[in-house]
Amino acid sequence: MLRKALAFLAVAAVSALLLTPICGILHRCGCRAPWAGGETYCNAQAAVGPHCPWCEHLVLGGLATTAILGGQLLVFGLVVRRTGIPGAAAAALGALPFLSLAAGALAWLPTDYPHFLVHDARDRLGLPAGPLHCYGGPPHAH
What we know:
By secondary structure, the protein is an all-alpha fold. It has six helices and no strands. The chain has one domain (2-33, 50-120). Helix 1 packs parallel to helix 4 (85-94), helix 1 crosses helix 5 (96-108) and helix 3 (58-83) packs antiparallel against helix 5 (96-108).
């Protein structure tokens, strides 16, 4: 049991390190890891313009993180009986992109943030702005 817990803890640690650059990919917000070019930057630090939904609404970022890690724990638990601990850890890490995409989309939809994977995704998809504002001020009119 301890070996399984430690293995999943390692999966969670690697995933946590990757969540900032994953946020940058999903939301095109500039989030990047400190090892990828200096200081971590996010458009949530900018005075104007849209702000990353995960950084502007920490609850959304926390829910997305919880969903991702919870999904990985589920994958780990389902796979460990068939493949052992190394296979379960690999499967849980392999699930990270898919879980991130799903959790990122679900956290993005209730906001008015325009970008998801591509610039102006909300307009390209014809999706209305959600009730959670990501402009740090009064609601932004699209």
